[in-house]
Amino acid sequence: MRIKEINKWIDEGGSLPQDLTQEEEEHLTKLGWSVKGALHHNGQKWYEWNYLHGMKHGVNKSWDKDGNLTEDEEYFYGNRIK
């Protein structure tokens, strides 16, 4: 498990590894992490937002229906920093 990277995300924000293992996801969930996402009607990813203790945390992204990135925002415990 990549504890160092997970702890850095909790302490500093930024991006989580894209290839989280089930064990890492379970560990993050126990620490208060959740991720919300949705798809456009055509199946393209619409948004993916990370939360820590119910607040947006880390990099949160949105895409248009053609798969183009439209938002790339960074939050730290609910505060937008980028």
Topology at a glance:
Blueprint: H1 3-12, H2 22-30, E1 33-39, E2 45-52, E3 55-56, E4 58-63, E5 69-76, E6 79-80
pLDDT averaged residue by residue = 94
**Percent of residues in beta strands?**
35-45%
What kind of oligomer do you see?
A: single chain
Binned, the helix content reads 10-25%
Largest sheet: 6 strands, antiparallel
Number of domains: 1
Q: What does the radius of gyration come to?
A: 13 Å
In brief:
The protein is of the alpha+beta class and 82 residues long. It contains two helices and six strands, in the order ααββββββ. A hairpin with a 2-residue loop joins strand 5 and strand 6 (79-80).
Describe this structure in words.
The chain is an alpha+beta fold. The chain has one domain. The protein is built from two helices and six strands. Strands 1, 2, 3, 4, 5 and 6 form a six-stranded antiparallel sheet that branches. β5 and β6 form a beta hairpin. The longest helix is centred in the N-terminal third of the chain and has 10 residues. It is globular, with a radius of gyration of 13 Å. It starts with a helix and ends with a strand. The model has no long low-confidence stretch (mean pLDDT 94).
